[in-house]
Amino acid sequence: MTALSFPRCRLELDGAVGTLTLAHPEVLNAISPEMLDGLMDALGALEDPQHGARCLLLTGEGRGFSAGANLGGSGPSTKADDAGAVLETHYHPLLRRLRDLPMPIVSAVNGVAAGVGMSVALMGDMVLAARSAYFLQAFRRIGLVPDGGITWMLPRKIGMARALELSLLGEKLPAETALAWGLVNRVHDDAELMPAARALAAELAAGPTRALASIRKLYWASPDNGYEQQLDLERRLQREAGRTRDAREGIRAFLEKRKAVFRGE
């Protein structure tokens, strides 16, 4: 295993899985510009071909995933009149980087995921939550509006009525309810969360990485595409996937009635 430290986060590379941990537990991993810079650097290391990472596992240290923006520190994120500016300079680049990551993402939500911390958690293609975890849109309690792309994401995941309820009332959404609403994929007992998340990440890391990355692109594009646009995108990405070594291996393994061995190529 290779462990790399960055400001307020760390990256552990174990085989083809990179585990990126938000690491400021004293404030429940509240996100600061310093942490955002660290996360961007960590993603750069994750994507370095020499490390061979093929899946990202995203989680938080200690009792929570992230309590949202760090309003108690110094810097632009603590000033309401700069809130819009710091979104564009720090938060949005991270969210776009996660959206465009050329590998699947598993989020392991080990406690509270509030505000923009909830936005980051939901960037996972597969979102696993501890039974004690909960989600919270608390912006209205400090006179701000939801951000981090959550007003795009929530209506598409759980519908407009529930999205408005979460944002207007600012009430906690327990993990079990989040599962019932379709916001997360699986809920595990607290002690079983990380073993289950690591097993899932390892399974995805052993898959046809380039095809999985293209699947991510297709589903991210789908909500804003018309039917004809989506058909065209499927055609183009299928053509690219069909030219990969993994596709040739997958078809050969199917015909030979054996398990495919994918290399992410």
CATH superfamily of the largest domain: 2-enoyl-CoA Hydratase, Chain A, domain 1
Q: How many helical stretches?
A: 10
Describe the main β-sheet briefly. 7 strands, mixed
Radius of gyration: 19 Å
SSE run: EEEHEEHEEHEEHHEHEHHHH
Give the amount of beta strand, in percent: 15-25%
SSE diagram, text form:
Elements: E1 2-6, E2 9-14, E3 17-22, H1 33-46, E4 55-60, E5 64-66, H2 83-99, E6 105-109, E7 112-114, H3 116-121, E8 126-130, E9 134-136, H4 150-158, H5 160-169, E10 173-174, H6 175-181, E11 186-188, H7 193-205, H8 209-221, H9 227-242, H10 245-255
Helix pairs in contact: 1-2, 4-5, 8-9
What does the model show?
- The strands form two sheets. Strands 1-2-3-4-6-8-11 form a seven-stranded mixed beta sheet, with helices on both faces.
- The protein has helices at residues 33-46, 83-99, 116-121, 150-158, 160-169, 175-181, 193-205, 209-221, 227-242, 245-255, and strands at 2-6, 9-14, 17-22, 55-60, 64-66, 105-109, 112-114, 126-130, 134-136, 173-174, 186-188.
- It is an alpha/beta fold.
- Helix content is 44%, strand content 18%.
- The chain is globular.
- The model has no long low-confidence stretch (mean pLDDT 95).
- It is built from ten helices and eleven strands.
- The chain has two domains: 2-205, 2-enoyl-CoA Hydratase, Chain A, domain 1 (Alpha-Beta Complex); 209-255, Lyase 2-enoyl-coa Hydratase, Chain  A, domain 2.
- The longest helix has 17 residues, at 83-99.
- It starts with a strand and ends in a 10-residue tail after the last helix.
